[in-house]
Design goal:
The complex is a heterodimer of chains A (106) and B (327).
Chain A: H1 9-14, E1 44-49, H2 55-68, E2 72-77, H3 87-96, E3 99-103
Parallel strand pairs in A: 1-2, 1-3
Chain B: H1 17-24, E1 34-38, E2 43-46, H2 47-57, H3 64-74, H4 81-86, E3 92-98, H5 100-104, H6 119-134, E4 157-159, H7 170-173, E5 182-188, E6 192-195, H8 202-213, E7 225-231, H9 233-242, H10 246-255, E8 258-260, E9 283-285, E10 292-296, E11 304-312, E12 321-324
The chains are: A alpha/beta (106), B alpha+beta (327).
């Protein structure tokens, strides 16, 4: 501002600048978690290998432990760890399993 | 705007209605057009949202078509921006622009081509990253948990020096006509310089470049990771003087990029990382066919070239992806 600026100081400070939102403006939907299972006995547990090296080593051990505790185990694998699990695979796991464990590795 | 999480850590230009309206004049596309489903959240991203982020990034309206085409290129199954963002490796989308648009909007293909000093180069790459961050939700510390990250994740976009190149362009090599404006997205790290100030013959320089390229990502990887070589004008002069065209160069370079798998088996030379023993006794190329992109760019003086290491390629990772830039 200087003496030649015709805008009164009070008017300028009261101005608001409208900014456009650069985000998606979407809010994630919240869902309640499935209640924790009281026991593994009789459950079907899915083991999802994300296709990282040595993920199978970890999941093999989990399968042994789960078997000893009375759970049936189904094994699943993502085609690649770099992409989200395909919808069909997610559907398969959701309809066949009571719980799922996903293995990261390296 | 910092507090709202809209920036990459640098100041941004406030996206006022007037500025966004001006930005939208840079394209003939309607503001409501959906450009892509933006990873990682896979939400619809409109031309208007891209324009808002292009303002934030500091773009001029005439850059907007390049930003739009770049986003279309990365939001494909073949480029796999989701994986490029989510990997802990410090890679990002690297963009090479070919065609008359590069000169028309003032992109740099010369001095400091991979560095600072040019508004179009820096703000186009930045705008793309801001869209992924703001629209897609790909926040560092959120889905983006890169171990080191790299400057390639801030902005990495440049033009090929076509006028001074004796070779066909990168876009031509990928099936486009020289009259077309094209952006090619490559998943890469930040560049590093390869020095060779003594090779006077094309053969010596090809051998020397091959030695450097063998170490991209890791000397113990073959075929699974792509690479990019940015040849400087002075290095290019060696091949020009020898009468080598792009095809001859790729053949000669490829011959020096053959790797004996016995040298990089797991456990060899006391290193656990490497190929499984089942791959012993083979001779394999460092890069899969088409897995090394070669571009001519850089200042007129300097016997250096630049190497950009890639990431996991093919259906398991990311493939270089080109799109025509349309108004």
């Amino acid at each position: 501002m200087n003496d030649t600026d015709p805008t009164p100081a009070t008017a300028q400070s009261a101005e608001t600048t409208m900014l456009l939102d650069p985000t998606s403006e979407a809010t994630p939907s919240e869902r309640t978690r499935t209640p924790r299972k009281p026991s593994l006995d009789g459950l079907t547990v899915g083991l999802l290998d994300i296709a990282k090296p040595r993920g199978d080593v970890f999941l093999d051990r989990l399968e042994e432990h789960l078997g000893r505790r009375g759970a049936a185990v189904l094994r699943f694998a993502k085609p690649t760890f770099t992409k989200p699990a395909p919808a069909d695979l997610r559907h398969e796991i959701a309809t066949q399993c009571d719980a799922v464990i996903e293995a990261l590795a390296d | 705007m910092f507090d709202r999480g809209w920036t990459d850590g640098l100041p941004v230009v406030a996206p006022t209605e007037a500025r966004v309206a001006r930005m939208l004049e840079g394209t003939t596309r309607s503001p409501g057009d959906v450009v892509a489903l933006m990873p990682p959240s896979l939400v619809e991203c409109t031309v208007e949202k891209v324009a808002v982020n292009a303002v934030l990034a500091g773009c001029r309206p005439e850059y907007l078509p390049v930003v739009l085409a770049a986003l279309e290129a990365i939001c494909t199954d073949e480029f796999n921006m989701h994986g490029v963002l989510a990997t802990t490796m410090g890679v990002g989308p690297v963009f090479v622009v070919n065609g008359p648009i590069a000169g028309r909007i003032g992109m740099n293909s010369g001095i400091n081509v991979l560095g600072h000093g040019n508004r179009a180069n820096l703000t186009i790459g930045r705008a793309v990253q801001l869209v992924v961050r703001n629209v897609g939700g790909g926040m560092p510390g959120g889905v983006d948990r890169a171990t080191h990250g790299s400057m390639a994740k801030l902005s990495f976009c440049f033009a090929e020096d076509e006028a001074a190149s004796p070779w066909t362009t990168l876009a031509q090599d990928r099936g486009f006509d020289p009259s077309q404006d094209v952006v090619t997205a490559f998943c890469g790290e930040a560049p590093r310089i390869l020095v060779d100030q003594h090779s006077r013959s094309a053969d010596s320089l090809a051998r020397s470049l091959a030695d450097g390229l063998r170490s991209t990502v890791s000397p113990r990887t073959v075929m699974g990771m792509d690479g990019m070589l940015v040849l400087s004008p002075e290095h290019m002069s060696r091949f020009r003087n020898a009468g080598w065209d792009r095809s001859r160069f790729m053949d000669e370079l490829g011959a020096h990029l053959m790797v004996e798998t016995n040298d990089i088996l797991t456990g060899s030379r006391g290193i656990d990382d490497g190929l499984p023993a089942t791959m012993a006794g083979l001779t394999l190329p460092k890069f899969r066919p088409g897995g090394l992109l070669v571009v001519h760019a850089g200042g007129p003086a300097g016997l250096f070239s630049a190497i950009v290491g890639g990431w996991l390629n093919g259906p398991m990772g990311s493939d270089p992806t080109s799109r025509e830039i349309t108004p």
